[in-house]
Amino acid sequence: TADDGYRLWLKYERIPNATVRASYSKSFSFIATSGNSDILNNAAKELQTGLNAMLGRQIPIVKTPVSNQHGIILTMSAIAGPGDGYAIQMQGANTVITASKDAGVLYGSFALLRHLQQHLPLEKAVGQSSPKIQLRMLNHWDNPEGTIERGYAGSSLWKWYELPETVDPRYTDYARANASIGINGTVVNNVNASARFLTAEYLPKVAALAGVFRKYGIKTYLSIHFAAPKTLGGLKTSDPLDPEVRKWWAEKTKEIYRTIPDFGGFLVKANSEGEPGPQDYGRTHADGANMLAEALAPFNGVVIWRAFVYKADPAADRFKAAYEEFAPLDGKFAKNVIVQVKNGPIDFQPREPFSPLFGNMPGTPLGMEFQLTQEYMGFATHWVYEAPLFKECLDADTYVNGKGSTVARIIDGSLHQYPLTCIAGVANTGSDRNWTGHPMAQANWYAFGRLAWDHTLSPEAIAQEWTQLTLTTESKDVAAISDIMLRSREIYVNYNTPLGLSRPWTGSHYAPEPWQNRSSRPDWTAIYYHRADTLGLGFDRTATGSNALQQYRPEVRRAWENAETCPLPYLLWFHHIPWAQKLSSGRNLWDELCHRFYTGPDSVLWMQKQWAGVRASVDPATHTDVSGRLVKQYNEALWWRDAWVLYLQTFSRKPIPAPYPKPG
Ligand code: GCU
């Protein structure tokens, strides 16, 4: 039957090879668990569902191991490594999954299933694994009326109007999918938050979701509207230092915990893009965060305070804004506050240098915010595998404590000994049957979870694993599909924002608009970012320009500040380059731009060819769906190419170099 994508990477297809099936069958005659928690029961149930389907037989769940038979034993006891880790061992011929917490047993069960879905020898499943980051979260930008900010896969998964009485079974499948990749927290509503979620009407709805998620080890969080004391509480102010305001938040927090006893905490967007915040009252981000932290502390809740801020200052460089506002506050935040930083200094562009905040707040836990939804990467039409983007940032060296001070080591807490660690992905899910709109975008959700657990995994390994779980186990086709995935981001960059260009859009963030020069704010135009003129292209952020490079350590600065040696992917992020200047590629700037704008769409033709070659082993409905999207992607890549080339040509006044044809 045609696959509709609903089962994601949890397909549990019957194993075609009889020998493999027989060898697994011998080892799995029962699943034993003392089963004294919902999470343990769900671990056993998932193993049963998976094994029954893969092996084509019924495997019972029992309380104690059956003698003379071989099976899986789920047990809890202290294992090495913190928190959510698990161990898989062979004891005699039994497979034993052990963890200190029941959630660890669940993660170990999913790890075993993942292993079997790839038809690997059972003994190779033996080992131990612990997550490197404590809070591994999805951030949903979902609104109360069901829309999703920057969502391209339908409407919200949460049916607020029918909750709490009706609990859609899909919430359970959502929780299973997350637990299977180790995600243990979810913020259910938009950072541009409606105060409604804090009302007595909505809290029971949120509690109903939390009731489902809890059984899979997932805590529920809410984005809050900072001015809620005024809008909801009827107070005259929302000043975080006002005693009445503090009391209001303390009471509200108590009410939340009465409704949701294991509530995770608050995510806050404040004084950013028009949202209210402590600065409305002359207070700092720390004042605001600490007020909420005080309310949450009795319940072990956390405040996740976002650093996505930038002021409407025409003379300023938006690149520098977050650092300027937050770095001086280092060490001023309460113990249960995490400052969540987007990977780059601007806003989820197809390629950005890492945010200079990483490394510059050693006294404040910094969390990572990645965006899974493809706001700037072709929505659900363009195929972009994001793991290379995530990895590029995680592996970037900040040099704050000398060589090897990677962004990953900052957010996993090992560099500055953070007591709290956090990584968030802005979700790409929605009500579409296949969850993510573009079937291949499921891989971005998957890769995020896998990297949140272990940031040392490679994009290649994750691509192969996901492909095997989701599309096919045919090894040559796995290789062909992962090859497309691994190149897809660079291909998109080539036709969209090559050489360090950024943000050629206005509102929708989809269509090419590099000429866009009018807005209520200069930093909401496209020309602010690329700075094209008759002399050249790019934003000078060296000492002769905005000097944003000053926010990085000398080693990083040195790598980027010299236009001759700056790596080409970052060139126009930091330099205004003359059109005729020769680059390290041997071509001048104009020719190199054209080269990339033209090879981009050509590479989409390559993706189409490569994808056509795997038709035999991929589910027909999925294959047809992706083929159609690749046709559109090609047409739109041409559209991007032509828009950029024709627009920039009005400044460069140079011909399109051979062998490329004229646009259009
Ligand atoms: C981007 C995005 C907004 C979002 C904002 C944020 O600017 O376009 O829709 O609200 O990021 O992260 O807060």
From TrEMBL:
What Enzyme Commission number(s) does the record list for this chain? 3.2.1.131
Q: Which residues form the Glycosyl hydrolase family 67 C-terminal domain?
A: 436-658
Q: What UniProt keywords are attached to this protein's entry?
A: Carbohydrate metabolism, Glycosidase, Hydrolase, Polysaccharide degradation, Signal, Xylan degradation
Any one Pfam family here would be Glyco_hydro_67N
Going by the entry's taxonomy, the superkingdom of the source organism is recorded as Bacteria
Per UniProt, the enzyme's principal EC class comes to hydrolase
For this protein, the parts annotated as crossing the membrane are none
- Does NAD count among this protein's keywords? no
The record's annotation in Gene3D superfamilies points to:
Alpha-glucuronidase, C-terminal domain (3.90.1330.10), Chitobiase/beta-hexosaminidase domain 2-like (3.30.379.10), Glycosidases (3.20.20.80)
Q: Which residues form the Glycosyl hydrolase family 67 catalytic domain?
A: 117-435
Q: Which reaction does it catalyse?
A: Hydrolysis of (1->2)-alpha-D-(4-O-methyl)glucuronosyl links in the main chain of hardwood xylans
Question: InterPro entries from the entry?
Answer: A-glucoronidase_C_sf, GH, Glyco_hydro_67_aGlcAse, Glyco_hydro_67_aGlcAse_N, Glyco_hydro_67_C, Glyco_hydro_67_cat, Hex-like_dom2
Which Gene Ontology molecular-function terms are recorded? alpha-glucuronidase activity
Domain Alpha glucuronidase N-terminal as annotated: residue spans: 8-112
Q: Does the keyword Kinase apply?
A: no
- Family stated for the protein in its record: Belongs to the glycosyl hydrolase 67 family.
Its assembly, as annotated, is: Homodimer.
Q: What protein name does the entry list?
A: Xylan alpha-1,2-glucuronidase
